[in-house]
């Protein structure tokens, strides 16, 4: 096996959850936190106070892009589709009903320069409009009503070469967990060997506050939900590793995007205290200056298109059904690869590419050497 092919084994498609109704969070109980928000483009810094009067604010559900709702103007920038930016505020009043000791708020994407406050306390700031981020709300939660306030500053609106949108334009999740739980993005795997007879994969699991008497169980299930490999760790630490051997592995391919499910379970004295499910696809990638690209040993042409994160008149808040229909239509006309332009996309888009059988060329940033807002 050539060096390029061995390196490619670690580039397997990997998301952090396998179900439609799950966040890209690798621990705890995640529930959507999209409904019942209030929004205003006329708010100010006093909106971080829990007692702030927001009765006149508009009530809406997330995801939300306020720019696409605005009026077109020739005085605005062409890269923004001649639509406005500005500074927007979101607020939500909520109570916590469960008895979990830890509670987090997880944003898949806010465009951009966001500030998040809980009961007047700053949880954090995030200038990037495309990366997902999470804050620990536990220290500032009260037993009664709580108020989450989010400032979104897109006043420097002409900041890209394409339409970005403005606001909390992806899903938001509330995550409840115990003191000991799997770390955020704490599950990863690397395939060391893959042929028709077997696959060998190393699985790494990070655990927050492991303490004592914890057991970690890792199981790989096939598409029929049957366990094909499993292993347990009895003395759990902050960093844990197991090796799984899979007989006669199915390959992930463009025509048959076969996905396994890896279930990771954390137990305390045989009681399940946390768990997560990770989709796993076995495939090899090979690159050659003479032959080009091979998927699972088959040389082929990569027929790709570039997709930005918006959906035309829908703006940047794109429902999953729209992405699915769009990808299915592209695949029907011969597309087999998606270039994510030019930033991290919504988790659901990667999940759809995994399930529909599309290669992905991912991008983390646009214009590494030159600043925006020239």
Shape field: flat
Task: Calculate the mean pLDDT score and round it.
Answer: 91
- The helicity comes to under 10%
Placed side by side, the strands forming the largest sheet appear as 3-2-4-9-6-7
Structural class: mainly beta
State the end-to-end CA separation. 48 Å
Order of helices and strands: HEEEEEEEEEEEEEEEEEEEEEHEHE
Largest beta-sheet characterization:
6 strands, antiparallel
Unreliable stretches, pLDDT < 50, 5 or more residues? 1-21
Number of E-state strands: 23
Strand content: 35-45%
- Cα radius of gyration in angstroms: 22 Å
Number of separate helices: 3
Kindly describe this structure.
About 10% of the residues lie in helices and about 40% in strands. By secondary structure, the chain is mostly beta strands. α2 runs parallel beside α3. The longest helix is centred in the last third of the chain and has 13 residues, at about 320-330. The radius of gyration is 22 Å and the shape is flat. The model is unreliable at about 1-20 (pLDDT under 50).
List the helices and strands and how they pair.
Layout: H1 3-8, E1 29-32, E2 37-40, E3 58-60, E4 86-94, E5 102-107, E6 114-118, E7 121-126, E8 133-136, E9 146-154, E10 172-177, E11 181-194, E12 198-208, E13 214-221, E14 227-233, E15 239-247, E16 260-268, E17 271-280, E18 285-288, E19 292-295, E20 298-300, E21 304-307, H2 320-332, E22 337-340, H3 347-356, E23 359-361
Parallel strand pairs: 21-22, 22-23
Antiparallel strand pairs: 1-10, 2-3, 2-4, 4-9, 5-8, 5-10, 6-7, 6-9, 11-12, 12-15, 13-14, 13-16, 16-17, 18-19, 19-20
Helix pairs in contact: 2-3
């Amino acid at each position: 096996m050539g060096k390029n092919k061995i390196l490619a084994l670690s580039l397997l498609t990997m998301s952090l959850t396998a179900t439609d109704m799950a966040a890209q969070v690798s621990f705890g109980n995640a529930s959507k936190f999209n409904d019942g928000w209030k929004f205003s483009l006329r708010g100010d810094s006093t909106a971080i106070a829990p007692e702030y009067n927001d009765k006149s604010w508009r009530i809406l559900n997330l995801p939300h892009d306020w720019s696409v709702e605005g009026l077109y103007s020739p005085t605005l920038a062409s890269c923004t589709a001649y639509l406005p930016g500005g500074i927007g505020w979101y607020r939500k009043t909520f109570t916590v009903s469960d008895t979990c000791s830890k509670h987090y708020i997880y944003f898949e994407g806010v465009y951009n320069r966001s500030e998040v406050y809980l009961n007047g306390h700053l949880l954090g700031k995030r200038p990037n409009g495309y990366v997902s981020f999470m804050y620990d709300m536990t220290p500032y939660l009260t037993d009664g009503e709580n108020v989450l306030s989010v400032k979104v500053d897109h006043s420097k609106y002409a900041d890209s070469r394409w339409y970005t949108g403005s606001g909390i334009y992806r899903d938001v999740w509330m995550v409840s967990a115990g003191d000991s739980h799997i770390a955020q993005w704490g599950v990863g795997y690397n395939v060391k060997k893959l042929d028709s007879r077997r696959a060998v994969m190393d699985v790494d699991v990070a655990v927050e506050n492991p303490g004592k008497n914890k057991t970690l169980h890792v199981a790989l299930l096939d598409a029929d939900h049957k366990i094909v490999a499993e292993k347990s760790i009895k003395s759990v630490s902050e960093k844990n590793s197991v090796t799984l051997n899979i007989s006669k592995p199915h390959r992930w391919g463009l025509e048959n995007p076969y996905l396994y499910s890896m279930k990771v379970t954390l137990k305390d004295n045989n009681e399940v205290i946390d768990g997560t499910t990770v989709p796993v696809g076995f495939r090899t990638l090979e690159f050659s200056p003479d032959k080009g690209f091979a998927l699972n040993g088959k040389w082929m042409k990569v027929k790709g298109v570039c997709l930005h994160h918006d959906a035309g008149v829908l703006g940047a808040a794109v429902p999953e059904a729209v992405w699915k229909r769009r990808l299915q239509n592209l695949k029907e006309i011969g597309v087999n690869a998606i270039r994510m332009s030019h930033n991290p996309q919504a988790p659901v888009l990667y999940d759809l590419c995994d399930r529909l059988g599309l290669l992905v060329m991912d991008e983390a940033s646009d214009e590494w050497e030159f600043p925006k807002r020239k």
